[in-house]
Amino acid sequence: MGLLSRLMLHIAGVLLMAGAMLFVPAGTLRYWQGWAFLAVIFAFILPVFGYLYRHDRQLLERRMRGKEKLSEQRRVIQWFKPAFLVVLLLPGLDHRLGWSGVPPWLSLLCDGFVMAGLLIILWVVRVNSFASRVIEVVAGQRVISGGPYALVRHPMYSGSVVMFLSMPLALGSYVVWPAFALLAPFYVFRLLNEEKFLAKELPGYREYCLRTRFRLIPYVW
User: Helix, strand or coil for residue 95?
Assistant: First the structure.
């Protein structure tokens, strides 16, 4: 199967799975926060994958691979994926049972923060052609220190954390926010393990870490 066909199937699969996990627990399609969230994701996915397909197909191939080579990372993924899928079911259940009363303006504001997190990820892939979905060092890879990498060492994770912490309120739920926040340690463990690997395998990475002090949040950590 060609890259374009695989890409279309990947996009369709992501959107169908996300839609099912939002609307089935909600028990209705009249869940506007779910539709607004999917619209934000769709508005991001199409131009980003379209850009990569036209300008950086090697990176697109790497972004579509999901099998980790490092045993530590495989264990993290094994825990993270089911935890995330369970957590994603909760906002729709909240909508059905009426646990929260998030005002529409706050949900829309948090949709904006979700988009902001996604735009950080877009910035990363435009700057770093080596931003693989899995942790690896490929032939010819070099340290990227410009753009968002001048602010933090792991800007893609920064964007992901912004997105995950905004998702519950974007989906109209106060009470499931702590469950989403509990996903943040996944990124902490993952990036610490990634730094250990890159310091060993990628020339110049140790020096980059000395120049760029902060890992995830500028001026904090």
Answer: helix
- Indicate whether this model's pTM tops 0.70: yes
Convert the pLDDT of each residue in 110-144 to its tens digit. 999 999 999 999 899 889 988 877 788 888 889 99
End-to-end CA distance of the chain: 43
Enumerate domains of the chain plus CATH numbers.
3-211 (1.20.120.1630)
Report the distance separating Cα 109 and Cα 196, nearest Å.
37
Helical residues (DSSP H) of 27-103, grouped into ranges: 32-55, 57-64, 71-97
**Structure tokens, 202:** 């990628």
The Cβ of residue 40 has, within 10 Å, a number of other Cβ atoms equal to: 20
Number of Cβ within a 10 Å radius of residue 11: 15
Residues in the chain: 221
Instruction: Report the phi/psi class of residue 132: left, alpha or beta, with left for phi > 0 and alpha for psi in -120 to 50.
Output: beta
Rg (CA), the chain: 18
Asked if residues 48 and 125 have their Cβ atoms less than 8 Å apart, the reply is yes
Where does 18-127 show beta strands of DSSP type E?
A: none
Please tell me the distance from the alpha carbon of residue 45 to that of residue 58, in angstroms, as a whole number: 17
